[in-house]
User: Fold these one by one.
Assistant:
Number 1:
Amino acid sequence: MTDVLAAFEAAKGFMPLDEGLALHAAAKEATAGPATPGLPLLEVGTYCGRSTILLADAARSAGTVVVTVDHHRGSEEQQPGWEYHDTSLVDPATGVMDTLPEFRRTLHAAGLEEHVVAVVGRSPQVARLWRQPLAMVFVDGGHTDEHANADYEGWAPLIAEGGLLVVHDVFPDPADGGQAPYRIYRRALDSGAFAEESATGSLRVLRRGPGSLAL
Ligand code: SAH
Ligand code: MG
């Protein structure tokens, strides 16, 4: 675990350690707990793999995998001129963002390549192809309402009963950040299909109850 945490702290990205530990604990519980043992984990929003390595460590312990989905072109706020832009992540050959090489370096450094399936694509397109029930879905992709709602609608129905929905960047107060992740978190609770398990910083962990999910 020390190696994994060192790799997490060395990776590019913005997730603080306390939220990372909460994410790791949720992934451990989802993959090893009685409700969804051995089912895969799914992440929307790979970026440079900072959160992926925590999910991969949990997957390794449980003999399963984490599937991580990203088009690797960055979100709105990561584009040139925006607050979260990192010029070192621009591909000089194309002049556009490409976080895939840095993600692969992160995973290699952490020694976790075997436990991760990386899908390069848009979250709704990948979700439409997906059938397998999931132990946990971690939503940390695009933060517009359009993207956040599409992530929720595409992936939340695939969470197995007893599995977890984890949403990052949930800010109930608009002064702290954008509201789209908060709105899908509310949407999940208001559906009646999910109940809150824990909150750490902007990370919310919800558990899927029995019955179908009305979108
Ligand atoms: N989970 C990462 C951070 C993810 S940042 C960490 O904790 O380090 C958000 C990522 O979502 C960006 O890399 C961006 O390219 C990706 N993204 C945004 N909208 C997307 C979409 N519709 N489909 C796939 N990836 C998307
Ligand atoms: Mg985030």
Number 2:
Amino acid sequence: MRLRRLRKSPRIREIFRDTDIRNDKLVMPMFVDENISDKEEIKNMPDIYRFPLRLLVDKAKEYEDIGVKSILLFGVPKHKDAGGSAAYDSRGIVQEAIREIKKETDLAVFADLCLCEYTDHGHCGLIKGKKIDNDSTLGVYAKIAKSYADAGVDGVAPSGMMDGQVGRIRKELDGNGFEDTLILAYSAKFASVMYSPFRGAVFSTPSFGDRRTYQMNYSSTREAIREIELDIEEGADVVMVKPALFYLDIIREARNRFLLPIAAYNVSAEYAMIRSAGDRGIVNLDSVVDESMSSIFRAGADIVISYFTEYLLKRGRN
Ligand code: PBG
Ligand code: ZN
């Protein structure tokens, strides 16, 4: 037997590889900012921008033209307060963005559902004393979910890691006639340093403490499985592992155990580190994007949320 026969030419290798980077499985994150009138590039994330609403819609149309199928929206509001009230404002920036993009394009629109961009303290939940209070936060998440659904979102993506958030949101959606709105649950979301560029981008760094009482300890595998199991019981349509590249083992474990679609979030510092290594000529950018993205699909992700989506689609491999 000679295994090298299957590697003998580019065509043969292409035919017999068992993992593909499928363009329609890539989700592009997008940032809409209520405070700006022109696009602003995000620090340490070359080619990734915050957009004012009008330019966001133009960009979404451009994405549709190059073959993007879905986006994940994040908002930067004008107003922040302790309760994160701008997050469930029916005229809020994300709600407006959902309406406009659904009107102007055929993209599937998903929206991140959290409070950290909207609270003056930068935490993902409401504060009671010195703690992030789980149960009072759930009602606020429910209001955000309803406001996104009213605006026409295809799916909400709760990322706050409060216990019971998926169940509470499902109940709210169903109770208001939004049985068809998906929940993409950030189920196994680890307390990771890899979100740093993102927090700079949306001004959501916590003003005290950190997120380790709600986001997962990265040294735990079994707990990640419990988080996913619970979200499935509570009605998640898609479960997510985040970050992606340092957590391929968790993606694989989830793939082996569960039947529903698994999303992986290839987060901001994964983008920043890879871009920076490519831009500095340490490695070839095209190759490293290809190899890292292949590894996430090979680990078992069905869809990948990645800032490289635009890059991959423009490059055109499939
Ligand atoms: C909000 C949220 C974060 C990310 C997605 N949703 C940041 C955080 O939890 O601090 C990270 C995305 C990225 O780094 O690309 N909870
Ligand atoms: Zn948050």
